[in-house]
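Q: What would this chain look like folded?
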Amino acid sequence: MKNYHIIQASDYAEINISGMIGVGEGLVSAKQFMDDFDKMASIYGLVKIKMNSAGGSVQEGMQMYNAIKKSSARVETYCSGIVASMASVVFSAGAIRTMAVGSRMMIHQASVEGANGNASDLRDLAKAIDGVNEDMKAIYIAASGQPEKVVNSWMERGKNTWFNATECKKLNLCDAIDDNNKVGISIAFEPEAHKMVAAYHTLLTPKNPEMDKKLLTASLGLSETASDAEILAALQNLKNKNMELETTNATLKASAEVAQKARITALIDDAVKAGKITADVKPSFEILAQSNFEACKVAIDAINPAPMQVPSIAAMVAQAHGSAQASTNKDMTFSDWQKKNPDGLMAMHKNDFEKFSTLYKAEFGVVPEKY
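A: My prediction, written as structure tokens:
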């Protein structure tokens, strides 16, 4: 699977998750992960889990979290790009949690897309979601040591709370920051410059003149009997070559930076247009893309467009009880149907979706999904 693979080294195993968590095509399921994780944990004393995920299913993610916490193997988690929503919970299970420079964590409440049913059903669903949020909050409190009041502020209703690596370290949401994961711009390699540096270093540390000269001539590719004039000429030649390479590298780097900036702008703007991210989080994704473009692209590709905003349960119940009485079905509003004939409303959704959609849009201002 493109977004999931395993690496087995001599003394540890590494499980890479770079997609959404859930059951279905292209998703990383708890069963797949747990089968592989249990096998690797039984072979190796150390299992590393490298993540770049926008989250996914609460049920699947909780199973993965519990499997990690219960394992007798040492488990280290690593965020290479983004750990958002349920992925942040799985990341929190590591004994050592490391974030790459430029990576991001996002925490929010659990949510359900396309909720439906009568008021009683929705109240039961709300209680279940509240329970999940309490479980997630307990995990964040245990992982960070932060007081409940602070964690509650991260999980306020309708809020997505983003942290960069430095903020995560300060809040104890991670244990370390890895600054060796940066994807730099490839520039020309100058072996001659390395040779010159070695030669200069030899000249600056003269402990044994004869030995130093042998090292110097060897570094320059000269014979041991080379004269001082030949050595100086070789050094000058290397210096000139290095200056040429520096000029070439500066030009290449400037061109690469312009091209990279254009790639980042296109990636982020397209994500906003597609509804995958909102304009207010563009700066966070731009920083991530500057540090690790490919990790950012994988993270954005894994994000589904923002789902339809489902009205709150309280609002639906209030509207159901507060709607004016209608004399005929023709004049009934969506709330009237919910209150007086919920079964008829469900039948309308199935048999006359156009009418259902018209009533729903008039009530809530958005077009419903057909399920």
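The chain is about 55% helix and 10% strand.
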